[in-house]
Amino acid sequence: MTTPRIISILIAALCSALASAADNDGLVLPKGFTATVVHKGVGLARHIAVRGNGDLYVTTHQFEFLGFDVSKRIGIVALRDTNGDHLPEVADHFSNLDGTGITFYKDMLYVSDDVGVYRYRFSGDELVPKGPAETVVNGFPRERTHADKTFTFDNDGHLYVNVGAPSNSCQEKDRAPASMGRNPCPLLDHYGGIWRFDADRLGQTPKDGTRYATGMRNTIALAWNGDVNALYAVIHGRDQLDTTFPKLYTAADNAERVAEEFHRVTEGANFGWPYAFYDAKLEARVVAPEYGGDGRKLAPAGKYPDPLVAFPAHWAPDDLLFYKGGDFPAAYQGGAFIAFHGSWNRAPLPQAGYRVVFVPMKDGRPSAQWQTFADNFTGGNIAGNNPDNARARPVGLAVDNVGALYVVDSEKGRIWRITYRAQ
Amino acid sequence: MIPARVAAIVIGAAQLGGCASSAPPRTGVESGQSAYARNCLACHQADGAGVRGFQPPLVGSPWVRGDAQALATFVLTGGFDSGSRKEGGNENVMPPFRELDDATLAAILTYVRQAFGGHAGPVSAEAVALARSHLAPAP
To answer: pLDDT tens-digit profile of A98-115?
Structure first.
């Protein structure tokens, strides 16, 4: 009696496992790539880091829609595979950090929240660090918006921190119809750019940093490109062209024209926020309406760099990773993966983004057209055109020591491991 | 200044007179939906559910279901700074919508209450005008 049932359950489980491997959990990938679910959901996940031994660490947010329950805070999630199948059997969590940035640097785990950057040291092979967090930088003003202090490192001991501007376009009244821009925008003194710190020194404050680049509204996705020894970033473009300046822009203009900008970030660069934005339709940087733009007026020539790639508006680039790994084919080596979290500000037009793209790179520049690498996170339908109803939204990326690419989703904290098998 | 306010009240009263005792005219609801699309939808979304962490939902909001004049005051003066996103607040704060005329704002609020407010009753232009009359003049 029981034996056939057990067998049928086992067969069902096996079929289900095979089906999910075969269909890549619903994700659409280039030929030869496979996505495996390594965790069904750790919570409201943000970014992910992989330790040299393969342990996974994931930052989380813990805000609730209509309130905040501190007891639900899970901080940093730690996952360990113990039998070599890359599916973690051990899950734990530590810290009460509510943040996004997370990266290993010199075998220490650096993490960030809205006001600082911290690090954990590991003793031996422990999954959860027993020691307290050390403060690397602390004291950024706690802002309501664009507050994530994501970061990256160069090879010379520097830490680069995104300090997003707590504003859409530096209007006198944020996001208010016809409200003009403050000129000069005072936020740029302390926000809207990348600040550089000492990667190894503890106890720094924002004043210890130097402004490395400016005119960047919010830059959650930043990474060091070791091939050319330079900082790269994907900037979130401004919102609400049409609701703030309806005489100049339509809802379709808002949904299509403000590029998400992929840049090489050189020291001292100014990318124009809030005075100008890169118009994907005109393929030129135009003066923002808050600063006298009329929908066509170009920003001063040569003042602000053009993007390496102008991605479609409002796709929300939330992580950037230069691929160096033994698993993917040669065409992927040194190229850039970008996780696009997906839009909220394209409505009433269909929301878009919600994918991982790949930009082939050579000598620090795109060497071919970018392509969608991983797609169909939403299952092709977002109920009510509301981003909260998306099945999944890619938000973080990491590579392990054999070259597999991890992608983490923000809605449930689902984690995929993407590998390549030659045909 | 005064003639404009008087005119607004007259228009509001006229509208109230036209629809208070019967079902709101369909045209009013439709123009409310259209005005919602132009002024509100980008943030609160077509389904009125907002965006988690960014803009709050209208669905289930006690403001939307509550007193009509209080709701009008809320929209005319703008939203609250609800604290940081990670303290349970939202990234964005609603700007004041004083530039909307009484009839348009009334139509929007009527639509919002019907669509997202558990069929709470319509908001008259008079209620909006009354709310506006209690505010300090716009700077």
So the answer is: 999 999 999 999 999 999
Q: Which residues of B touch A147 (CB under 8 A)?
A: 84-86
* Interchain CB distance below 8 Å, A68 and B96: no
What does the CA dihedral A272, A283, A365, A219 come to, rounded to 10 degrees? 40
Per-chain mean pLDDT for chain A: 93
Residues 106-125 of B with CB under 8 A from A: none
Domain range spanning residue A403?
A: 27-420
Model pTM score = 0.90
Task: Describe the strand order of the beta sheet including A56-60 as a list of residue ranges.
Answer: A45-50, A56-60, A76-80, A90-94
In the predicted structure, residue A93 carries a pLDDT above the cut 90: yes
Q: Rounded to a whole number, what is the distance in Å from the CA of B35 to chain A's nearest CA?
A: 11
Q: Which of A63, A174, A251 sits opposite B85 (nearest CB)?
A: A63
Residue A11 in this model has a pLDDT that exceeds 80: no
A253 touches chain B (CB under 8 A): no
Query: A142 vs B84: CB contact, 8 Å cut-off?
Result: yes
Q: Which residues in chain B show pLDDT less than 50?
A: 1-29
Residue B1: what pLDDT?
37
> Which residue is it, tokens 């008079």?
B126
CATH 1.10.760.10 for domain B2-133, yes or no, is yes
Domain boundaries, chain B: 2-133
CATH code for position A275: 2.120.10.30
Count of domains observed in chain A:
1
Q: Do B86 and A146 touch (CB under 8 A)?
A: no
Residue of B nearest to A98 (CA): B86
Calculate what percentage of chain A has a pLDDT beyond 90.
89
Higher model confidence: residue B17 or residue A117?
A117
Please list, in sequence order, all residues whose beta carbon lies within 8 angstroms of the beta carbon of residue A418, skipping any fewer than 6 positions away: A29, A33, A34, A35, A36, A374, A404, A405, A406, A407
The answer to whether residue A229 is domain-embedded is yes
Taking CB atoms and an 8 Å limit, are B42 and A146 in contact across chains? Answer: no
Residue A209, Cβ neighbours under 10 Å: how many? 19
